[in-house]
Write a structure and sequence with these properties.
Blueprint: H1 7-14, H2 16-20, E1 24-26, E2 32-34, E3 43-44, H3 45-54, E4 61-65, H4 66-86, E5 96-98, H5 105-115, E6 121-124, H6 127-136, E7 143-146, H7 152-163, E8 167-172, H8 177-188, E9 193-197, H9 222-234, E10 241-245, H10 255-274, E11 281-283, H11 307-325, E12 331-333, H12 338-341, E13 345-355, H13 372-383, H14 389-408, H15 414-436, H16 448-452, E14 455-458, H17 462-465, H18 467-471, E15 478-480, E16 490-495, E17 504-505, E18 508-510, E19 513-515, E20 518-520, E21 530-533, H19 540-543, E22 554-560, E23 568-574, H20 579-585, H21 590-606, H22 612-627
Parallel strand pairs: 4-22, 5-6, 6-7, 7-8, 8-9, 9-10, 10-11, 11-12, 14-16
Antiparallel strand pairs: 1-2, 2-3, 4-13, 13-14, 13-21, 15-21, 16-17, 16-20, 18-19, 22-23
Helix pairs in contact: 4-5, 4-11, 6-7, 7-8, 10-11, 13-14, 13-15, 14-15, 21-22
Bound molecules: pyridoxal-5'-phosphate.
Length: 634
C-alpha cells in the first residue's frame, strides 16, 4: 500500500514557507510555485520551464522574477515610512541600492523604476558603478552615494553629477581622499555634498565581521573625523558635510549587532551636530540579512529579525539618542542590497546522472584459490544481525584496510580487490537500515548514511551559479520543482559538471541544523528531473567565475500577469555564453581556432586518413560546438 505524500509532508522536508517569504509555495499538484506579485495568481515554475523549452531556451537557466524585485523595494520603503510616521520621527527615509550586489542592467533599472516614487537612490563603490549610477539614476531627489576608494577620475565623475543637479554624496573612506576632493571641487567650481564614514569600534559578527573595528579597511577613526571636520572648516566647506555613514558588514544575523552599531554611530552623529556640523543624513550601510535557511536564528545563513524589526530598531533607536542629546532627527539612509535582490532569482538545472559508491558491483561468487581476506569479508555479510552490526562494521573496516595494504604489496589481484570493495559496500549498505531504526547510533557509524549517499550530477557549475556555497559556505534552499506529492527516497548531495572536486554542494538547510544531504526523488529513465537553487539573486548572481569555461547561464525575465492563462509571460531572454564567447574572454580567437582545425583536417585528408566528406562534417561539428551553449545538452 502506498502512503499518501502531501504538500504538507513536502513542506516538512523543504521548509519552503520558512525561507520562501511568501514568494514560493508548493501547490496541491506537488509543483513548486512562485508568487512574485501578491495581486497575481501563483506561477507554476515547471510551466515557465515548459514555455522556455517551447522557445528553445535550454537548461541550466536563471529565472528572474522581476515583480519580486519591485516588491522588495516597496516593502523596505513602506516599512520605514510607516514606522517613521508611527514614531513621529522628523527625518525621512532615503534608502539607496548598492549596485555591487547585482549590477545587471535590468536589475538596476527595475529597482530604480520601482523606487522612484520613494526617491530610492543608488550607491556606487567603483568608477564603473558610478558611471552606471550617473546614467541611470535620473531622479534628482534621490541620493547617489559614492563609497569605495577614490582616485581623481572617480571624484571628478561625482562632481560632474553634482553639476548635473544630482544629489551626489561623496563619502570619505580614507583621510587622503579629502585633499584631492578639495582641490577638484575648487578646480571644477562645484560645492560637493560630503559624507564621512566612521570606523566603529563595535564587534560585528558573522562572515563580514571585519567590516568594522580597528582593522576595518574603510572608514575614519574619531581622530581622523575631527581632523577632517577641521580641514573642511578651514577650507570653508564645513557646511558641505551632510552625511554620516558606517557599514558593519553584510548578512548581519543578530539584530543586537545593529542596535550596538546604532548606539555608537548615533552618539558620534549627535556629538558632531553639537560641534556645528550640519549633518542631514544618517547612513547605516548594508547588512540587512536574508533568512536563507528559514530558521529565523543567528545562524550565519539566517536572521533573527524581520525587516519591520530592523526598521523599528533604527528609527526608534536613533530617535531616542537624538532626543536625549537634543539634536534634530536626521533622514535615514540604508544601503540594503542582499535583502532587495536575493529572492528574485533562482537557478534551475537538470540532473544528468547519479553517482553512487555501489553503482557498479563485481561478481562476488567464491572461487578456488581466493585470498583469505575475500572470504573473511564474505563471511561478514552472512553473520550480520541487528545485534552485532557494530562488531561487523569494525571487522569490515579492518579487512578493508588490510586488503588495501595487501593490494599495495602486490598480494591481492585486481579481481580480489574488486570483490572486497563490492562486499564491503554491501555490508555498509546493510548496516544503514539497521541503525536507522535505533535510538542510539554509536559514534563512527553516525555519518555512515551520508558517506554512502549518492551524488546527483547536476548540469551547472557551482563556481558560476552558486559561488557563495563554495566560497563562504552559504546555505541555499535547494529542492525539486516537481514530484512534491511523492516521497523523496534518495538522500543525496549535489555534484556539478566542472572537473573540480570542490564543485559540489553538501550542506543543505535542515531544521536540526545543517544536513549533508538533501532528499530528492529516484531518477526515472523517461522523465527529466529538475531542481532549483533559490535566493541566488544577491552577489553570487554576478560573481560567478569562468572555471572550466562554462560562463553565464541562459536567463529569462518573468513578469506576473493576472490576465494571462499561465499567470506570467517571458519578457526577455538573455542567451547564456557560447564556447566562442567564453574563449574570447580568455584572449582566444574562435575564428582562428576553427581555421586551424580546418587546416589540420585538410592535412589528414591529403594524407588519405580522413575522407573529404567526413572531414567537412568534422570541421562543421567543431564550428557548431564553438557556437553552442557551454553546458551539457540533454
Ligand atoms: N554598503 C557597503 C558600504 C557595503 O560594503 C555593502 C556590502 O557589503 C553594502 C552596502 C551592501 O550590504 P548588504 O548586501 O548586506 O545589504
Amino acid at each position: 500500500m502506498t502512503t499518501l505524500f502531501t504538500k504538507e509532508d513536502a513542506e516538512k522536508i523543504y521548509h519552503v514557507k520558512k525561507w520562501g517569504n511568501g514568494y514560493f509555495t508548493i501547490n496541491d499538484k506537488g509543483e513548486l510555485t512562485a508568487t512574485p506579485d501578491s495581486k497575481s495568481p501563483p506561477i507554476v515554475i515547471n510551466e515557465v520551464i515548459k514555455e522556455m523549452k517551447a522557445q528553445n531556451i535550454t537548461l541550466p537557466a536563471v529565472i528572474r522574477f522581476h515583480d519580486i524585485l519591485r516588491e522588495r523595494v516597496k516593502i523596505l520603503n513602506k516599512k520605514f515610512r510607516d514606522i517613521i510616521e508611527e514614531a513621529n520621527y522628523e527625518g525621512r527615509y532615503m534608502g539607496v541600492y548598492p549596485i555591487k550586489v547585482n549590477q545587471m542592467r535590468e536589475v538596476v533599472e527595475e529597482i530604480i523604476e520601482a523606487g522612484s516614487k520613494f526617491d530610492f537612490g543608488i550607491e556606487a563603490g567603483s568608477k564603473a558603478e558610478l558611471l552606471t549610477a550617473l546614467a541611470f539614476n535620473d531622479n534628482t531627489n534621490s541620493l547617489t552615494i559614492l563609497n569605495g576608494y577614490k582616485d581623481e577620475d572617480y571624484l571628478r565623475l561625482g562632481l560632474m553629477g553634482t553639476k548635473l543637479g544630482k544629489k551626489i554624496v561623496i563619502v570619505i573612506e580614507k583621510f587622503s581622499e579629502l585633499p584631492k576632493l578639495l582641490k577638484l571641487s575648487k578646480e571644477m567650481g562645484v560645492t560637493p555634498l560630503i559624507g564621512i564614514r566612521a570606523k566603529l569600534s563595535i564587534q560585528s559578527q558573522g562572515r563580514w565581521a571585519k567590516s568594522c573595528g580597528d582593522k576595518a579597511k574603510f572608514g575614519l577613526t574619531i581622530a581622523e573625523i575631527l581632523n577632517a571636520v577641521q580641514l573642511l572648516e578651514d577650507s570653508h566647506l564645513k557646511e558641505s558635510i551632510k552625511l554620516f555613514h558606517f557599514h558593519i558588514g553584510s548578512q548581519i544575523s543578530d539584530i543586537r549587532t545593529f542596535k550596538d552599531a546604532l548606539n555608537e554611530g548615533g552618539r558620534i552623529y549627535a556629538k558632531l551636530i553639537k560641534m556645528g556640523v550640519n549633518l542631514q543624513y544618517f547612513d547605516v550601510g548594508g547588512g540587512l540579512g536574508v533568512d536563507y535557511d528559514g530558521s529565523r536564528s543567528t545562524n550565519d545563513s539566517s536572521t533573527n529579525y524581520s525587516i519591520s524589526e530592523y526598521a523599528a530598531d533604527i528609527v526608534y533607536g536613533l530617535k531616542q539618542i537624538c532626543d536625549l542629546e537634543g539634536v534634530p532627527h536626521p533622514s535615514i539612509v540604508t544601503e540594503s542590497g542582499r535583502a532587495i535582490t536575493a529572492h528574485h532569482s533562482c537557478v534551475i538545472t537538470n540532473i544528468i546522472d547519479k553517482i553512487s559508491a555501489d553503482q557498479m558491483v563485481y561478481e562476488t561468487k567464491k572461487m578456488a584459490g581466493e585470498h583469505i581476506l575475500v572470504d573473511n569479508m564474505r563471511d561478514l555479510i552472512n553473520l550480520l544481525t541487528s545485534e552485532n552490526y557494530q562488531e561487523i562494521y569494525n571487522d569490515a573496516l579492518q579487512y578493508r584496510e588490510e586488503s588495501l595494504q595487501a593490494f599495495k604489496l602486490g598480494i591481492l589481484s585486481l579481481v580480489e580487490r574488486a570483490k572486497i570493495d563490492t562486499l564491503f559496500n554491501q555490508i555498509m549498505n546493510s548496516i544503514v537500515p539497521i541503525i536507522a531504526n535505533n535510538d542510539f547510533i554509536p559514534e563512527g557509524l553516525q555519518s555512515l548514511k551520508e558517506k554512502l549517499s549518492p551524488q546527483y550530477l547536476c548540469n551547472f557549475s557551482v563556481f558560476q551559479s552558486a559561488a557563495d556555497t563554495w566560497a563562504i559556505q552559504q546555505l541555499l534552499p535547494i529542492m525539486p520543482i516537481t514530484r512534491l506529492n511523492e516521497k523523496p527516497t534518495q538522500n543525496c548531495s549535489i555534484a556539478d559538471i566542472t572537473c573540480d572536486s570542490d564543485g559540489k554542494i553538501d550542506r543543505f538547510i535542515s531544521l536540526d541544523g545543517i544536513a549533508n544531504t538533501v532528499p530528492l526523488h529516484e531518477l526515472k529513465h523517461d522523465e527529466e528531473y529538475l531542481i532549483g537553487l533559490f535566493l541566488t539573486g544577491a552577489y553570487q548572481d554576478v560573481m560567478g567565475d569562468m572555471h572550466n569555461l562554462f560562463g553565464r547561464l541562459n536567463e529569462v525575465h518573468i513578469y506576473s500577469d493576472a490576465a494571462d492563462p499561465q499567470g506570467f509571460y517571458i519578457e526577455e531572454f538573455i542567451q547564456g555564453n557560447s564556447a566562442s564567447n567564453v574563449l574570447a574572454t580568455m584572449q582566444y580567437n574562435p575564428e582562428y581556432m576553427a581555421q586551424k582545425m580546418k587546416k589540420m583536417v585538410n592535412k589528414e585528408i591529403s594524407r588519405g586518413r580522413i575522407l573529404p566528406r567526413e572531414g567537412v562534417k568534422l570541421v562543421n561539428f567543431y564550428e557548431e560546438c564553438l557556437k553552442s551553449y557551454t553546458y551539457l545538452k540533454h
